[in-house]
Design a protein that fits this description.
Length: 194
């Protein structure tokens, strides 16, 4: 049977990918169709990236999934190094995106934000594809049931209210805000959002 941890990680990727799609859609509507910028929505998207993938999802992968694979085998070392580098790059890249969004909002400098936002979304997609298509098959070959259980528990801990941290709840709140603010083809039908 497939480890449940894989499905949890894929579900997290699905939510992150949906937000990336929303970001790219907005950029294209503004740049190619002259749509007015929706700054509250753009800020909500960047807040989501900081509060979920950057702060929780990537570190859990480093500390549990990647570490467990390394313990069992060096089969994926080069790939893991590449993925860890993506994680390290993630923080400065989102900070850069925030700076560019502020310049867009305050000084109308749209083009640098558009370019960085599209590149960010593409890089994040490529990263998640690499994890799912290249790393997971290797992980399934080398990890034991106990390894998967530890990874599962670590990802589930993201929901654990005992520690007073509920990152998934925070992420869900931001996610709902994004859906509520997004235009109808992506978010709720207009007027029905919160
Ligand atoms: Fe990752
Ligand atoms: Fe990931």
């Amino acid at each position: 049977m497939r480890p449940e941890a894989i499905q949890i990680i894929k579900d997290e990727h699905f939510a992150i990918a949906a937000v990336m799609y929303c970001l790219r859609h907005l950029v294209r509507q503004m740049r190619d169709h002259g749509e007015a910028p929706n700054f509250p929505l753009l800020h909500a998207i960047l807040d989501y990236i900081v509060s979920y993938p950057d702060r929780w999802h990537h570190p859990k992968e480093n500390d549990y999934l990647f570490a467990a694979i390394r313990e069992r085998s060096d089969i994926a070392n080069a790939l893991i190094e590449r993925l860890e580098q993506d994680h390290r790059d993630g923080h400065p890249r989102i900070e850069d995106l925030k700076t560019r969004l502020n310049a867009f909002e305050r000084a109308g400098e749209a083009a640098p934000f558009y370019a960085a936002a599209e590149a960010y979304a593409q890089t994040e997609w490529d990263h998640m594809r690499r994890e799912e298509d290249e790393l997971m098959p290797l992980a399934e070959r080398v990890l034991t049931a106990e390894d998967w259980q530890r990874i599962h528990d670590a990802f589930r801990e993201n929901d654990n209210p005992l520690y007073g941290i509920k990152p998934k709840e925070d992420a869900e709140r931001l996610y709902q805000r994004i859906l509520a603010l997004a235009p109808a083809p992506i978010g709720y039908a207009s007027g029905k959002g919160r």
